[in-house]
Amino acid sequence: MLYTLYETQRTLMEPFADLAQAAAKFYSNPLSPFSETQLAHRMSAGYELMFRLGKDYEKPQFGIRTVDVDGVSCAIHERVEIDKPFCELRRFKRFSDDPDTLLKLKEQPVVLVVAPLSGHYATLLRDTVRSMLADHKVYITDWKNARLVPLSEGDFHLDDYVNYVQEFIRHLQQKYGNCHVMSVCQPTVPVLAAVSLMASRGETTPLSMTMMGGPIDARRSPTAVNNLATQRSFKWFETNVIYRVPSNFPGAGRRVYPGFMQHMGFVAMNPDRHATSHYDYFKNLIQGDDASAEAHRKFYDEYNAVLDMDANYYLETIKTVFQDYSLVNGTWDVRSPDGKLERVRPQDITDTALLTIEGELDDISGSGQTEAAQGLCSGIAPERRMHCEVKGAGHYGIFSGRRWRKHVYAKVRDFIRANQPGQPAGAVRVRRVRTAAA
């Protein structure tokens, strides 16, 4: 019922948002006589803010058209390599007319970036992908909005997530011989499970795993996200946050955790910060600070675009990761595509190097939660494990923005390179590293 009420409200607000957008343009258009009035800038800014607060935010595009590879501009062609009911494996293929650059592109490592399925779209990692493309062949998991997946496609479970990751890894291994895996936030847990299961079966595992800001052990330095999951019962989540998709979407009738509820939760964590940001946007519009205003738009176009998650996957994640701590307790059994239950044993991983990265000020995955993977993966030789703490970085700072580009990316690139066949082995012995952040 709540989902239907929300959609009704959104539909009713849509014409008012469009009207506000038209009014903003009316007062700011230099050809309009009203743009010369004393209050024109304030009227335009007010209507623009009203439009931004009331509009519907659709899935953003990655929009990466070119990338610089050692001074040579390479064109990017984005395409879907594998299309699954709940996820697309998306590739960013690079093209160049320069023979030397083309040879270099062919020899660079292959990286599967596993994006989070926790409310936002994979485009949240746009900055991550753009940086990685300079030195790697890049693939990413582009998760679909569950409200757009028909009921005929069945349900989506946490086990399915793990199986998807394994399928994508095998696809890249078959195509290139092997690959590296990078997981950001939520997927650190299913990625570790996927690689563990492959190792237990004796399959070839990825050359390296890079895990960034994820809840491997959510008991350590619990955050507001962790506390919510532990203070509420499983039944409470099932009763209060799960709704059926309304009839106007392809996934009508599917039980989901709605994206708009996740978005409200995001905003509720830092309401003052968002209020200040919107007020600053209003002032920037009045003052004609187009650069700051555009930066605000880009951030909130991404931040406000959210997707629904299948109820089974969401509830199982709450229970497995945040309530039962099944991974660290050694009690997690994953059902394979053929229906067989398999125990997740990270200690069975021996041939995959491990890099864990945390932000010093991360308020989503607290300090030590990601580093816990180091202890679980005891079968990996110490010289092939490394932990990095990024000083002054919050959750998003470890994979996006200035700190990511200037400090974190180089460590990820060098770690992957050190574990790429044919490259000289680097000293990556496990240690706690604090990266400086100017």
UniProtKB/TrEMBL annotation:
This is Polyhydroxyalkanoate depolymerase. It comes from Alicycliphilus denitrificans. It comes from the Bacteria. InterPro entries: AB_hydrolase_fold, PHA/PHB_synthase, PHB_depo_C, PHB_depoly_PhaZ. Residues 213-419 form the PHB de-polymerase C-terminal domain.
